[in-house]
Amino acid sequence: MRNDQASAPSEELAYRLRQQELTAEFGRYALRTHDTPSLLQEATRVCALGLQSDFCKVMRYVPDEGQFIVQAGVGWKPGVVGHARTGADTESPAGYTFQTGDPVISNHLAQETRFRTPALLVEHGITRAINVLISGDGGRYGVLEVDSPNPGRFTAADLAFLQGFANLLGVALERQQFEEALRDSEAKLQEAMAHQEVLTREISHRVKNSLAMVAGLLSMQRRMTCEPALQRALDDARTRVRTIAQIHDWLWRADEVHTINVAKFMGELCDLIRATAAPGQTLSTDIAPVMLATDQAVPLALLVNELVTNALKYAYPSGEGEVRLTIQPTTPGHLRLTICDRGQGLPPGFDANNATSLGMKLIASLGHQLDGQPEWQDADPGTRFVLEFLVQERSTQQV
């Protein structure tokens, strides 16, 4: 323990170099740790070593109480750290430092006339103390205090060491507070995302139930009519409603809400179409695994469903045959949709622009939604539908 007797220059130099070494070691520790209690406790241990004392403490200011709590410390009796309170008014050394920002050295507490001696120091036989402010850009945290019951004195050089150490501690605390706030924000974001997912599931469930109810009503209406034409129209309407429900279900389950993998998306849709096809009817596909904006994926899926189901229904009067679906890139940024059969072909005098059926109007409308020009071609034999359109870079839909 250093005392009032002058130290040899070599001893003084070694003492100050040791303080610098301890500060550097603590700086490295502060960069590694993310636990505030451990950081504070290590700070008190290192400061006690640096000033060759057995007592050191960090006093955190508690605004609601207007006093300090001993947040971390070494040398103190059990039950002090984490529990003991001391005054934060200017009548105490630590309170004066906190309120004014000025450090305080009291080398003779028993003879001190500027401040009262806190009961905690009297209880532990402390005779001298040194206090510095712990602060950062976010405000004042508290006071770092080194105490000693032994003869000797704290010097201006000791004060420089302790203040520099407190400044380093303040920066480390500020960093940890920022990281804690960031973790809290991330946790709240995750909570909000989880809540959003629950809402999405609930909305999807309700939409599917609503569409299922519409499909059920169409089925009921179909059973109540004896007119074949009306029965076919109701069957077609029910199929379209179910397709919309299936597309909606697939889209909300996708990982990416703005874009869709065309091959996976259309693959599932085609599996559903195959499941309802008549025996002997086949659907073959050649679909590139390109990403497509959801704004385009929905009308494309409805268009594919309409064309393929129509081909399976009308191209082969015998009930057996193949429909081939191709979606491939052509020029950069463009996709070409082709649906072809080898059936009986288009009826004589067919004019898509003047067609009056709901199915043909729907096909034309969906083609225009994709900013493409639908083309009906004679496949000799059979029919070929071609639509080339520009791929959007990203969905403009607000999801």
Task: Quickly describe the structure.
The protein is of the alpha+beta class and 399 residues long.
How do the helices and strands line up, and which of them pair or pack?
Layout: H1 9-32, H2 36-50, E1 55-62, E2 67-74, E3 85-87, H3 93-100, E4 104-106, H4 119-123, E5 128-136, E6 139-148, H5 156-223, H6 228-253, E7 259-261, H7 262-276, E8 281-287, E9 291-293, H8 294-314, E10 321-329, E11 334-341, H9 358-369, E12 375-378, E13 383-390
Parallel strand pairs: 8-10
Antiparallel strand pairs: 1-2, 1-6, 2-3, 4-5, 5-6, 7-9, 10-11, 11-13, 12-13
Overall radius of gyration: 40 Å
The number of distinct helices, counting runs of at least 4 residues, comes to 9
| Strand-pairing-aware structural class | alpha+beta
According to DSSP, the number of beta strands is: 13
- CATH class descriptor name of the largest domain: Alpha Beta
Question: What order do the strands of the largest sheet run in, or round the barrel if closed?
Answer: 3-2-1-6-5-4
Round the mean pLDDT to the nearest integer and report it.
Answer: 86
**Main β sheet profile:** 6 strands, antiparallel
What does this structure look like?
The protein has 399 residues and is α+β, with helices and mostly antiparallel strands. The protein is rod-shaped. A six-stranded antiparallel β-sheet has the order 3-2-1-6-5-4, with helices on both faces. The chain folds into two domains: 9-185, GAF domain (Beta-Lactamase, 2-Layer Sandwich); 257-399, 2-Layer Sandwich (Heat Shock Protein 90), CATH 3.30.565.10. It is built from nine helices and 13 strands.
